[in-house]
Amino acid sequence: MKYYTKSIRNLFVSYCNYSSKLRTHEPHQFFVGEQDRFNGVTINTAKENCDKTCFSQRLEASIGKWISERKRCIWFKVNIKDASYVPILADKGFNFHHARDNFVMMFKWLPNDSEPNLPPASHTNLGVGALVFNSKNQLLAISEKHYEYAHWKLPGGYVERGEDIIDAAKREVKEETGVNTSFLSLLTFRHQHNMMFGNSDIYILLMMKALSENIILSHREVQDCKWMEVEEYVNHPHVHQFNRLIIQKANNYIKKNLKLDLEKTTVKWAQFTREMTYLSVNDCDYNI
């Protein structure tokens, strides 16, 4: 019993001594950051600049404070101008989570009694491809640069952050071929792994109607582009098997007057409102 009483007393004294050390630091010697709902803290170096000579000391004091407050995950959003902080953070046990054009996000999980329970970094790319028909029922085919083999493919590319799928398809077709389009139907999507940067890849195929037919080639990306008869495309030796499947899907939807539509709605939760796009199946009298 005496042993346990002594251990508790020692633990209490240690805590008091540590609390006393914390009180010797001025408030400006700690990083403030923003609290999150998971009892974590995010520090943005662009908002809390600190000279490199005192960064390590300030970081160590802050970590001690966060431990005493039983914080969970500490996030550091390191602006590219503050890149010199990265090795200091790494030396203090911070790991990389994700990066963008002008910052890298690093994290340190504080609890010793649990494993990190964090959202994964982005691991899936999202792209769009467009099957574009003109008034003559021809489709728009392109041959891109930087391919090692002959091919005729559909225009398309990656969806940008904050961009809707339909808008991305219109933009990609316009950028690559100069053709304006309108949305008809979603056709299908493919899902693959171990693609660019080791990420998974989702590619959504849309059926589009040409609003203009004059081709203005993007010489940066596209080697050749033309309107091609459907039969020629389907039977061309340089057309991928999956793209032949896309043509079949489009023909089936047209024959059945079936449309896979992408509709938008506003959804309200307890504390926030979000716009979302969802899939709906509708009848459609195609007039291509």
Automatic annotation (TrEMBL):
InterPro entries: Nudix_hydrolase, NUDIX_hydrolase-like_dom_sf, Nudix_hydrolase6-like, NUDIX_hydrolase_CS, NUDIX_hydrolase_dom, Pre-Nudix. Belongs to the Nudix hydrolase family. It comes from Parnassius mnemosyne. One of its GO terms (molecular function) is NADH pyrophosphatase activity. SUPFAM superfamilies: Nudix (SSF55811). Gene3D superfamilies: 3.40.630.30, Nucleoside Triphosphate Pyrophosphohydrolase (3.90.79.10). It comes from the Eukaryota. This is Nudix hydrolase domain-containing protein. Keywords: Hydrolase. Residues 123-250 form the Nudix hydrolase domain.
